[in-house]
Each structure stands twice: as structure tokens, then as C-alpha cells.
Amino acid sequence: MALFRSIAQIFQEAVRLFSNNEFESMRFDSVGKSIAHVQMSLLSIQSPHMIKVSNIAVEYVDMSNPGPLIDISSSTLLSLRDSSFRNINTNSSAGMIILASALNKIENVTFIFIDSESGSGIFSLTPVLGDYNIQIFNSLFQSLGFKKPGNVIATQTLERQQEGKLSGYSVQLEMQSCNITRFVSGNAILLSGGINCVDCKVLDTYIDGKIYFGSANEGVVTLSNGVSGVMDLSKITIVRPQFVRGPLINIVDCPAATVILSNVAYNGEKKEFYLGLLDSGKLEMRYSNFTNISIEKNPLINIIPIPITDGDGERQLQANVRMESCRFYNLSYSGTSL
Amino acid sequence: MHIEANTFFSVKLKSSATSSLLLIDNFVDAKILGNSFVFLNGNFAILSLPQGLKSQSLEASSNNIAYVNIKGFLLYIGESVETFSLTRNTFSISTFNLACVSIDVDEASGPWTLDRNRFEKVDFVFDSTNKQGESHGFISLYSSDISRSSEII
After folding, report:
1. What are phi and psi of A8, to 5 degrees?
2. Is B143 in Cβ contact with A30 (below 8 Å)?
């Protein structure tokens, strides 16, 4: 509830409206002596305001410099809706859009043909003011090409000192009725750095075709480096992904994290396929259908115990998997065990 | 103060001391409406407001900016501004090398509006010899404090 404590207060604050603007065929570049560290943005709002962005169209933007396209990281509330971003070449290692703290409502937003040299991806969460609440509804992410692993949504390391102890920020994430298609390299969702998932869920989302996960830490969802709490994935349809090494679900070094897959429909074929790759945490799969999976050597779920040393001596960190009422159709497998 | 329906065509400012085509020293309400700025070239902004101003409203609407190669359209570093409006302006085939719009104030009571502007074939080529720093926005809005009594839209 602390997450929402200040929401009413936020609505009392001033509003910045940014609507119905069109940006077409823009180029961002720099000249001069110290161009290497110049970060350039289309829109930079550094003030503790409520920002409403709607009906904007941004097309054919070429950004040579490493700034985010939109930086609203100091704001208390962002509403981004009914807007499109097309044919954008970004070179930002910090993400294309740096989200505000507190409440972010993103609805009916289209991202098509986004290329990134430096990875990091579309939305990047950087804490300035505190905990996050992110809602992404009815949005399309199509033809995202990240030359280094990028993510639709990613957190940076979110740790803070609280009463002398290091603790993570809380993130409440809701992604619903989104479409992610033709996605190259990275994660749909990457949460890392000690954050606490509070009511995180992805619902009714369609992930379709030519999704290329290039390394072991890339997948539909990756939790790493001390994420805790529950990530609930429900009614997700995944069709024709092209896994190279990455898993559907990836849990690395998150003993207090749980991922729940329920009512997931997966239809794909790849010889090196992982449904889950985890060294810790808990993966629960319920009422899901997995169709047309052909695996030659990897297990469907790969649990990699890792030894850790703490005050009790050396022990193994063990992941936990639970399957309930899942169906596997046309499963072709030549390994030793699932 | 109104600056309305004027045409500035083919203006080149050579003096390095000149920072602005329009330099407004003092105003309460400023309106820049329906002007045309075409073929401007130089190290200046179209409109800049000196530091230390407390302004109630600032509005730039329905202006046409084309074929310019300048520092910026509107640059304002002041103490405060209550309402700011940038609406229905057209920017085309131009290059800005500091910022297109930059508002930097200590206090703001809002609302600020940027609505129905069109930017087409506009380059933002930052000249780092103008100003050293890390982060620069084509449209940059900054205020460190806001009033909590502003009206909600």
C-alpha cells in the first residue's frame, strides 16, 4: 500500500501535457570537442510533475548519440497513450524511454522497427523517487532489433539503503493485451537487482514469431540478481519463437522469486529449447499447453544447482519446479529426460 | 506583450554578442502568435528571455519556422513561470544546435502544454562548444519545485 500512498498527492500536482505532436524525419547528432559523452533526447523533462503524453507520432528518427529518446525519469507520474514510435534508430544504452517513478500508465502505444546499437531496449526503469507501478496495456512491440541484448521492459540495479540495510525497490508491473512480435535478442521482461515484485503479472499477451533469444540470460522473462516476489504470467500465447540458447523463463540467483505460468499456449519448434532454466527460485506451471516441441539434447527444464557459502557453511541453492495439469502435444525428444 | 503575425525572412546575425532575435527583458504575459521565421542563420535563438524573470504566462502558437540553422527557438532560464503553452507551431527543414525549446525555472505552477506541433525534417545537431554537459533535450523542460495548488487538467 505504501506504493500507492502518494498517488492521491501526485494528482494534486501540476500537469505537463504533451499531446498531438508529430515528429518526422529527425536526426540527432553532435559536433564539437566533447561529443563522446553528450546524451541527446527528443524530450527531456526533469521535474517532479505529472506528465501526460498522448497522440504523438515519432517517425524516422536517427539518433547517433547515446541519449534516451524520452527521459522522464524525475517525474512522479507518466501517462503515455495513443502514440506511435516507428523507424527509430537509437544508440542509447540506458533504454529508449526512461520511465518515471511512481505510476506509469502506458496504453495503446506502438513501437515498430526500433533498432538499437547499444541494447537495453524500450522501457528502462531507473529509480529516482521510489517504488514503481507500471501498467502497459494494448500495446504493440514489433520488429525490435537490438544488436546487443535489449528488453521491452528492464530494470537497472534497484537497490537502496534502508535502515542500514540494502534492500530493493518494489515494482508492481502489469502488462496486459500486448503483442510482441519479431523481436531480436533480449528479454520481453528483465527484472534484476534486488527488486521486490509486488503483484507483477503479464496477462493476455501474444508473442509471435521470429523471436530470437541469443544467450542463456535471454528469454521471455528473466529474473536475476536477487529479485524476490511473484511474477505471474497468465494466458500468454507464444508462437514460433526461435530459441538459440535462451529459455522461456530464466531465474538466476533469485531464491525468493516465483514465476507462475498458467494457461500458457506455446507452439514452437526448436532443437535447443528450454522451458525453464533456473538455479534458484520457484517455477510453477499450471494449465498450459506446449505443442510441436522438438528437442535434441537439452532438457525441457534445466535446473542448475549452484553452491553457495554462507554462515552455515557451503550448501546448494536449489530451485523448485511444480507442474500441474499441463499438456504436451507432439513432443519429440531424444535426450535422456525431460 | 504580443508579437503577432510578423515575418522574419532571411536573417543572418553575425555578432557573437547577439544571443537572440527577440530578447524580452521584462514581461508578465508574453504571446508569440502567427509569426513566420524563414531562412535564419546564426548562433542565436529566435526568442530568449533573460535570467531572473518571474512570468505568469508564456505562449507561442501558430508560428512557422522553416529553413533555419540556429541555436534554438525558445530558450528561457528564469525564476518561475505559471502557464506555458507551445501549440500549433510548424518546424520544418531546420537545424537546432542547442535545443528547440528549453524551459528551465526554479518554480512552476503549471499547467504547461505542448500540443499540435509538427516537426518535420528537423535536425538536432548539438554543438558541444556551446555548452558542456551530459544530457541535452531537443525539448527540455526543467523545474525544481512546483506548486501543489495548481489546477488539474
Report:
1. -60, -40
2. no
Using an 8 Å CB-CB cutoff, list chain A residues near B114.
16-19, 21
Report the alpha-carbon distance of residue B75 to residue A211 in Å, rounded.
44
Give me the interface pTM, i.e. the ipTM: 0.88
Helix, strand, coil abundance in chain B, percent, nearest 5: 0, 65, 35
What is the per-residue pLDDT for A12?
A: 44
Query: For every residue of chain A, which 3-state class applies, written as one string?
Result: CHHHCCHHHHCCCCEEEEECCEEEEEEEEEECCCCCCCEEEEEEEECCCEEEEECCEEEEEEECCCCCCEECCCCCEEEEEEEEEEEEEECCCCCCEEECCEEEEEEEEEEEEEEECCCCCCEEECCCCCCEEEEEECCEEEEEEEEEEEEEEEECCCEEEECCEEEECEEEEEEECCEEEEEEEEEEEEEECCCEEEEEEEECCEEEEEEEECCCCCCCEEEECCCEEEEEEECCEEEEEEECCCCCEEEECCCCEEEEEECCEEECCCCCCCCEEECCCEEEEECCEEECCEECCCCCEEECCEEEEECCEEEEECCEEEEECCEEECCEECCCCC
C-beta of residue A79 within 8 angstroms of C-beta of residue A54: yes
How remote is the C-alpha of A154 from its chain's centroid?
Answer: 4
Tally of CA atoms within 13 A in the half-sphere of A205 that contains its CB: 26
Q: Which residues of B touch A16 (CB under 8 A)?
A: 110-114, 141
Dist CA A92 CA A41 (whole Å): 10
Q: Among partner residues B116, B119, B124, which is closest to A20 by beta-carbon distance? A: B116
Of B134, B137, B146, the CB nearest to A47: B146
- Whether the per-residue pLDDT at B122 is higher than 50: the answer is yes
Mutate to test the interface with A, among B96, B97, B117, B151 (most CBs of A within 10 A): B117
Question: What's the pLDDT tens digit per position in B75-95?
Answer: 988 888 888 899 999 999 999
pLDDT at position A2 = 44
What is the per-residue burial (b if ≥16 Cβ within 10 Å, else e) of A55-80?
bbbbbbbbbbbbbbbbbbbbbbbbbb
- Please calculate the CA angle B11-B14-B19 and round it to the nearest 5 degrees: 85
